[in-house]
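*** Residues and shapes ***
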Amino acid sequence: ALCACGRYTSKLHRAYSLFYVIGTLGATRVPPVNWAPVRNLEQMGPLLAFVGMQLLEYVEVQRRARKLSVLQVQLLRAKLALPIALALVGAAALLMQFGYFGPLSARVRGLFVKHTRTGNPLVDSVAEHQPANEQAYSHYLHHIYHIAPYGFLLSLVRFTDANLFIVLYAGTAYFFSNKMARLVILLGPVASALGGVLLGVAADQLLVRPVARLGSRILRLPSPPATGAAEAAAAEGAEEEEEEEDRSGKDASASAKERRKKGGKGGAKAEAALGEAWSHARALGALAMEGVELVYANPVSCLLRIALGAYAVYWCVPRGREFYDYSHQLAEGLSQPQIMFKAKTYNGQEVMVDDYREAYWWLRDKTPEDARVMAWWDYGYQITGIANRTSVADGNTWNHEHI
């Protein structure tokens, strides 16, 4: 996405290349995975992105060494991309003839193709392709469910690499969770990050900056710059802008020279007029922002912001405690499944229910070692692990027709 938006940098190349190489090598060391990252069709996307990154980095090195213009860079990318794409297509077609690539798994197809119910409840339950609903989002995300959308909108305000990543992450996670309820777990990290974005911006604009400004007035210290939301976002992306300018400055000047040569005096006049109009527009924008900042940094405005921030803290602290306690309770409930649990009879007597354990031990002791057990898929792993018998279906049943 960064490359498509024209925000490619060598830093991005190094980050993705290390991520892909180390991650893939680590995954291939896991026996069930083996060489699946380079053989499964659903995992070809990251490999193609890796190849594309190497091409873009080679062009970037050539741009710096030969001081190429923007047009020359695009032409070099096209000249290199076309033969590489043809070679990859030819290699893929040849390998498919030998059965090198496996087909898309049923679970992956189900994320993009609407699941057709078979009428067999066991098969339909194994697929688990029912989309998540509002109750599921609220149950697993708790208070974050209500504030994450505001963090998402704030991330859209400033177009930086970090914000683009979190926006794409959120959109992708929501898409897949809306296809399969169990994938709501993908929203956990990004929803927390988006909630943090909202809380961070609120704390900065309602408490930190107004307190600093009033403190500087009282102590007669040099006033901090009146930094509103727009300038705060600008400061956050300053480093990326400098890198962008360094990357594109020479290209822009070279392109401008080419246009002046082709256009002659008429082109130079049009370019000068356009530059002047742009300068006026920027000056008007800066003047408007200065007026907004004067109101925003006014002592009365600062006091109102502090009061609003204090109320927000008063409102958020108890809910933060609720969220903390709820998260730990939910984590404990999800990470400690039990086959033995306590229950109370009709007269209030507490008993230990161990029916599952007894059933698994009965299977282990009373059935042949090569027996196969047909049961609901939920119990498949426990049948294999505790009863030491083969189950017909479990949580890793990929083929819908296997049962």
Q: What stands out?
A: The two ends are 41 Å apart (CA to CA).
